Amino acid sequence: MYGFEYHRPGSLAEAAALLGKLGDGKPLAGGQTLIATMKQRLAQPSDLVDLGGIAEMRGIKVEGDTLSIGALTRHAEVAASAEVKQRIPALARLGSTIGDRQVRAMGTMGGSVANNDPAADYPAGVLALDGTVVTNKRRIASADFFTGMYETALQPGELITWISFPVPKRAGYAKFPNPASRFALVGVFVSQAANGSVRVAVTGAGPGVFRVAEMEKALAANFSVDAIAGVKVASDGLNTDIHADATYRAHLIGVMAKRAVAAALA
Amino acid sequence: MLSGSYADYAMPRADDVPSFKVDTQVTPCTHNPLGVKGCGEAGAIGSPPAVISAIVDALKEFGVTDVQMPATPCRVWQTIQNARA
Ligand SMILES: Cc1cc2nc3c(=O)[nH]c(=O)nc-3n(C[C@H](O)[C@H](O)[C@H](O)COP(=O)(O)OP(=O)(O)OC[C@H]3O[C@@H](n4cnc5c(N)ncnc54)[C@H](O)[C@@H]3O)c2cc1C
């Protein structure tokens, strides 16, 4: 690891000001990705701005039909939250499948969404639930937020503060974990909004999270496992690596989507 | 070796195995005065063939007669597809 300066601001305004002024500073949340990349010398920020002391970015709020989760909220807190379990149980379940106990105790929703790892779980939830990423500058619809592999619409120095989710009619998440890393080999989040529209978001299979229009159409007409049993997803553009090839990942999308629908109906 | 770290190489971890008790059964060797036995490299001679044989047995209804290691989920699925084709 290369040397860096450490800062721990007490407010969002102070953090944003620091990041604006420091040449090559990076925000630090749970450190579960950033510290490892620094140890491998894949990242060498001049400064780390630890967000941990910023109370206004932490917590879980319910306002009407919207559930909002602070960027600094840990995976374990999402998994255990009574509010999340009651309104979007699939999101609590997703949180409980991330990594291991140690990772869930430190990793944060904001860090995961900002990082946009192609095999991370939260991007599938945020996209399928039609979530809104709230930053210190603006509100970004999930459809515009995830722009590519490890790429997002965030500008340099821009901070995710909260992520808000309209409470769906029903939702389910099914994940086939990579047995080594426990990231998603393939994960599928299925959600039916209060108005009946359906979103199916896939993580782990491609270079970034994406939706499956054909499944969405079939489920909007008939929300059942049978409705998507015949839908085949093409393997073009999907990932091939030492763990699985594109053909197997395409097959898993079908299997995980059916399990996610079954979970949503359970 | 294709894996870059333990994020690629699956190792059983504490939460992958059931709780168990460790006990010792002492059977001294009778052929030397110390009663000691050599046990270097006792490691994994029996378990890989036992596991692979169990997988082959589980897949026999598909006509599978062999599975190459490592038996990743993808490898097992492909083996079934090939046997069906
Ligand atoms: C062994 C292991 C297993 C894992 N398994 C899984 C898994 O199964 N599924 C999964 O989804 N993830 C998994 N992860 C990743 C984990 O979920 C991390 O928590 C997550 O990727 C990053 O969150 P963090 O809070 O640790 O962020 P950090 O590592 O602190 O930061 C990550 C990046 O986001 C930026 N950042 C952080 N917070 C903000 C913010 N509020 N606004 C803007 N930018 C920000 C940082 O500058 C950095 O670039 C695993 C990690 C490990 C080490």
Walk me through the structure:
The complex is a heterodimer of chains A (266) and B (85). Chain A has 266 residues and is α+β, with helices and mostly antiparallel strands. Chain A is built from 12 helices and 14 strands. Chain A has a 5-stranded antiparallel sheet. In chain A, strands 11-12-13-14 form a 4-stranded antiparallel sheet, sandwiched between helices. In chain B, 28% of the residues lie in helices and 0% in strands. Chain B has helices at 47-58, 73-84. Classes of the chains: A alpha+beta (266), B mainly alpha (85). The A-B interface holds A 100-101, 176, 179-181, 183, 185, 242-245, 247-248, 251 and B 2-3, 6-11, 13, 15, 72-74, 77-78. The complex binds flavin-adenine dinucleotide (FAD). Flavin-adenine dinucleotide is lined by residues 26-34, 36, 51, 71, 98-99, 103, 107-108, 110-112, 114-115, 117, 120-122, 154, 159-160, 181-183 of chain A.
What tags apply to this protein structure?
heterodimer; A: 266 residues; alpha+beta; Uridine Diphospho-n-acetylenolpyruvylglucosamine Reductase, domain 2; Uridine Diphospho-n-acetylenolpyruvylglucosamine Reductase, domain 3; five-stranded antiparallel β-sheet; four-stranded antiparallel β-sheet; globular; B: 85 residues; mainly alpha; 28% helix; binds flavin-adenine dinucleotide
